[in-house]
Design brief:
- The chain is of the alpha+beta class and 149 residues long.
- The chain has one domain: Alpha-Beta Plaits (2-Layer Sandwich), CATH 3.30.70.141.
- It is 37% helix and 17% strand.
Amino acid sequence: MTRCFAMCKPGVLNRRLVGQVITRLESKGLKLVALKLMNISPELAAKHYAEHAGKSFYNDLVSYITSAPVVAMVWQLDNEDCVQLVRKVVGATKPSEALPGTIRGDFCSHTNHNIIHASDSDESAEREINLFFKPEEIIDWKDESAIWY
């Protein structure tokens, strides 16, 4: 079993696209095991984006992610690489490189206001999941439809 952290950023909520994002990930066969609507504090944003501290875009990144609520999610896959699959559905970080049919390719036009975050490695997924969720908030349920994907 592998997991991936994903987060619908403020632009998704403002544009009323949360349902479409979740539908695309579910349609690919990913299992949603945690979901939370929340405001991100500047302190949590600093921890989440620690690797970008000091870069020219860091302050804008923190400002954007704390500007409105986000939807934090944990996705899970059995016997496959969840991070890799989520990132394929999400698409390339730069909107100009994101293919049509991906979340970013269809809904994102500005890198500075990227609409979704997805972990880029298993290590990042574990760190990010632990930042946003307590263990008891993650519910690993028996997926009876798994045979269809």
